[in-house]
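Students often ask what a holo structure prediction actually looks like on paper. The answer is less mysterious than it sounds. You provide the chain, you provide the ligand, and the output is a string of discrete structure tokens encoding the 3D arrangement of the protein together with flavin-adenine dinucleotide.
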Amino acid sequence: MNQDINGVWNSWNENISFNYKSLYKINSEEELQEVVRNSEKIRVFGNKQSSSDIVSGASTLVDIKTYNKILSFNDSEKTVTVQSGVILGDLLEAIEAKGWCIPCLPDINTITIGGALTTGTHGTSGKLLSEYMTECKIILADGSLKEITEKDKLIHAVRVSLGVLGVLSEITFKCEDIYTLHVKEGPENDSDWLPKIKERLKKHDFLRILWLPHTDKGYVIIGDKIAADTEIQENLGPKFLKHRRKASKILYKYTHIFPWITAIANKLLYRGFFSATKEHKGSLYQATVTKSRGSTLELAEWTIGLDKFPTVFEELKTEINKWSNKSFIHIPMDVRFIYKDTSWLSYAYEEDIVTMGCVSRNAATADTYEAFKSIEKIFLKYGGKPHWGKRFTAKDAELSKIYDKWEDFKVLRKELDPNNKFLNPYLAELFNEKLTTNETT
Ligand SMILES: Cc1cc2nc3c(=O)[nH]c(=O)nc-3n(C[C@H](O)[C@H](O)[C@H](O)COP(=O)(O)OP(=O)(O)OC[C@H]3O[C@@H](n4cnc5c(N)ncnc54)[C@H](O)[C@@H]3O)c2cc1C
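The corresponding structure tokens follow.
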């Protein structure tokens, strides 16, 4: 294994930095077990693309990206087993080559499987990615290995576990046959798309709305499964659409100083990049997942029960449209839909939910982005839950009210990691644990 000593760890967008004493790159399960066993405080990181401070901040770090083999396929069960550092895009290409898919995908392919699972990463019109994990091996704080299958109750705690119960080693996913999605996209007034959500969820296989704050519009993306050879009228829109992110970056450049510029920028971006319709087809991965991103950004995302969403949406819209506050929000706010599951720290624990993203395209000035505060205040008021990998300030006091299984998770965490080996300062605060001074880096 490879060890680097006394360096500085920076997150993807360079908003979070920590000193470390040792950073390991490992290649085998045995090496991973050895590092975990011999470390006092340890965090494992993937592609560092989380906006919340859950990744680093321990004296020992493991870069899991070198632990990235696709280990085996089981053709009769349609399962694939991988090491947890595999990049999502690599996994998806390998299973597409088998004629399989994972039927609900996030809009990013550069993340690691370990990072994606532990933070509750999700797409739309399906379940969290972690719900497609049927088995895993996890390395506990003492370095021992535990195998967990769908038959074990522990799987409900481990599926979304912020990396605090142990380190995910090997993961098995249940796949489905690949399908072709016929995608139609176009703008709609808020008064049109909002009341149609439930009807569209029933009717279509894919639904995502890129809400465009300060324009009264949403850009609605609908997908239906079709036979692969069905002919469609392909329309990818004007060529300049690919420059949307670059144009946003320029238009939002000074919005941290003059937030109101956002309202004007959004209207221009709507006219330039969201007013055309599009039609295309492809696999879920090829047709809906962004493959390259030119610039960094900072994210928050909140989730709320499907039935409460219209109320929360209207309140948020009223709030951000008040020129008396500074909560102008960059385009788009990604609205997606997740079906209920049984994972303790899942946003969709026992209820269908809506997720709503909030982006700051100026990553460096995200601390002054009022929108993050407004969205948190409104969603928390209605019992909404924050995305674990994104920015939020709620801690134990708030989280214990919104997660039915919060206390159970805390008890289990303490049982599996009595010396808080996997907690960094941020996670210690989240779980209301005190770290002694020499436990922090
Ligand atoms: C541009 C962009 C788009 C995004 N799109 C989406 C989206 O569509 N849907 C969505 O839900 N989220 C989305 N996210 C959030 C993203 O999926 C999560 O933040 C994810 O965790 C990032 O993966 P990573 O490999 O970078 O993990 P990191 O940020 O490096 O790590 C995340 C967490 O996972 C833990 N971890 C990593 N590997 C392991 C392991 N093997 N065992 C135990 N713990 C481990 C780390 O300790 C850390 O706590 C997006 C983020 C960005 C920047």
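The longest helix spans residues 261-274.
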